[in-house]
Amino acid sequence: MKFKMIATDFAIDLGTSNILVYKKGEGLIINEPSSLVLDENHTKVIAVGQQAKDMLGKTHEDIQVVKPIKNGVITDFNLTEAMLNYFFDKVNVGFSLIQPRVVIVIPSGITDIQKRAVEDAALHAGSRDIILVDESLACAYGMNLAPNEPKGILLINMGAGTSQVAVISLNGIVVSSTINKGGDYLDEKIVDYFREEKSLEIGKNTAEEVKIKLASLKVKDGNNEMEVNGKDLNDSRPNTVKVLSSELVTCILPFADEVCEMVLATLEKTPPEISSDIKKNGFALSGSLSQLSGLAEYIEKKIGLKSYRSEDPSKDAILGAGQILEDPDKFLQYRK
Ligand SMILES: Nc1ncnc2c1ncn2[C@@H]1O[C@H](COP(=O)(O)OP(=O)(O)OP(=O)(O)O)[C@@H](O)[C@H]1O
């Protein structure tokens, strides 16, 4: 085994759907699904990451695909630790005397107990010095919005398990609100739609594909069509049905409205000086779900502000955590 005095410091975004890892001095090195495959006794990890996600819906009774992080929150401590161990090993090949410093992105609004669970999982997996960073702040860093300055930023982050609205200034969260709904919730709504309206049972990966390729809140996309494969609920045979984009609007709209209500309620609680910054600059959109066709435009219209986004919103949080890893003092300014 390779031996090193000092291990490599890194940042990690423990997302509901993906885990991303940034290595100090190098940049983003891992971007894989946060899934695990376990044996029948739940004792042995058989596959992790993309390999595990590919097995979803295709396993037999001896193995099971699990996601230890649901709705942005650790639901199984031991599994999360097993997954962290896998990623820690991937970054730090070999054995080192001094353990790594790790920056961990945590969802906005998680409880102190949940924060402790993340810290404990990371300590057990072998890290020394842990900096926990609120996901919204990490995204603001990743989008180069200078969240350490006395300037109000309104950021909406929509991921797989959670959606957050945060008003940020001087490295802190001034007001925020979170719902435990995101892309996974929309996938479930799409599965329900096919079951109820098309008598077709479809898997979660298929529902996600339909959401990404077809779902849209743009009226002009309404006639876009897709063929979807699944199992006919009447005769249990494989079947293919056609679906229009307009049919899926009922799956997306209630969620979009809930996000807008959350934004409006957050703006009501925002101090006036910050409100005027937001009025001038609009709002930042982050998280992969923000790419859903027509969603940004829908929110803009409902709240009356313009939005802006980075080139790849799935990487905002990890690139921000990476910046904090490279220069922790900037992030620790104005904080306890
Ligand atoms: N182009 C797209 N259009 C719509 N949805 C998308 C698109 N690309 C990815 N998604 C969805 O975005 C979600 C993943 O977002 P992201 O990677 O930001 O989440 P996460 O960080 O793992 O989750 P969380 O922050 O909730 O813990 C998934 O539900 C995925 O299906």
TrEMBL record:
Binding site for ATP: 160-162, 208-211
CDD domains noted in UniProt: ASKHA_NBD_MreB-like
Top-rank lineage group of the source organism: Bacteria
Pfam family, one: MreB_Mbl
Keywords: ATP-binding, Cell shape, Cytoplasm, Nucleotide-binding
GO cellular component: cytoplasm
Any GO molecular function: ATP binding
Localization per Swiss-Prot or TrEMBL: Cytoplasm
BP GO terms, sorted: cell morphogenesis; regulation of cell shape
Keyword set includes Nucleotide-binding: yes
Record carries keyword Cytoplasm: yes
InterPro entries reported in the protein's UniProt record: ATPase_NBD, MreB, MreB_MamK-like
Broad class of where this protein is predominantly found: cytoplasm
Family: Belongs to the FtsA/MreB family.
Subunit structure: Forms polymers.
PANTHER family assigned to the protein according to its UniProt record, in alphabetical order: CELL SHAPE-DETERMINING PROTEIN MREB (PTHR42749)
Task of the protein: Forms membrane-associated dynamic filaments that are essential for cell shape determination. Acts by regulating cell wall synthesis and cell elongation, and thus cell shape. A feedback loop between cell geometry and MreB localization may maintain elongated cell shape by targeting cell wall growth to regions of negative cell wall curvature.
Name this protein carries in UniProt: Cell shape-determining protein MreB
Organism: Anaerococcus lactolyticus ATCC 51172
